[in-house]
Amino acid sequence: MNYAETITTTAAPEHAWAALANVTTYPRWTASMSAVEPLDSPALAMGNRFRIRQPGLPPTVWRVDELRPGASFAWDSHVPGVHTVAYHRVEPEPDGTSRIDIGIRQTGALAWLVALLTAARTRRYLRMEAAGLRAAAEAAATAASSAGAAGAATDDNAASTGGR
């Protein structure tokens, strides 16, 4: 079974990636996750594991098995009869915005049964995560812009007072 969601954000790719790569903050911007607990380290790194709690689903351990910093990552989980891979990609657009692709692929002898039981929830959660990710990326871009403006104002003030 395959599920995918694509969303565009006004945030530059580096801001979209910053939001995407900070996996422990996901519950702050999507109601589809109630907790993301690092089991090895909070860093998004190859082999690191995270226990994710989602409303209406059993807690699941995900292991990072693919990572292209600044561009994409995937993590996978295994339960008897089902192997699930969740992928996350940030692609720059020519106008400086970003396209974000997220999705889930489920394979295995029982994937059809999991799909039968959870397809609607999976689609809804992907939509929630994409919308939350867009908001988090745009908030990161706004914060970076504000920090840059504050730094420029401080620099201008120091220059006008001779650095005093």
Describe this structure in a few short sentences.
The chain is an alpha+beta fold.
Structure keywords:
164 residues, alpha+beta, seven-stranded antiparallel sheet, 34% strand, globular
Describe this structure in words.
This protein is an alpha+beta fold and 164 residues long. The chain has three helices and seven strands; from the N terminus they run E-H-H-E-E-E-E-E-E-H. Strands 1-7-6-5-4-3-2 form a seven-stranded antiparallel sheet, with helices on one face. A hairpin with a 3-residue loop joins strand 4 (60-68) and strand 5. Helix 1 crosses helix 3 (111-160). The model has no long low-confidence stretch (mean pLDDT 91).
What would you call the shape? globular
Rounded to an integer, what's the Rg over CA atoms? 19 Å
* Low-pLDDT runs: none
Give the number of DSSP strands: 7
Number of helices: 3
Distance between the termini: 64 Å
Sheet of most strands: 7 strands, antiparallel
Helix content: 25-40%
Structure classification: alpha+beta
What's the layout of helices and strands?
Layout: E1 2-9, H1 13-21, H2 26-29, E2 35-38, E3 49-53, E4 60-68, E5 72-79, E6 82-92, E7 98-107, H3 111-160
Antiparallel strand pairs: 1-7, 2-3, 3-4, 4-5, 5-6, 6-7
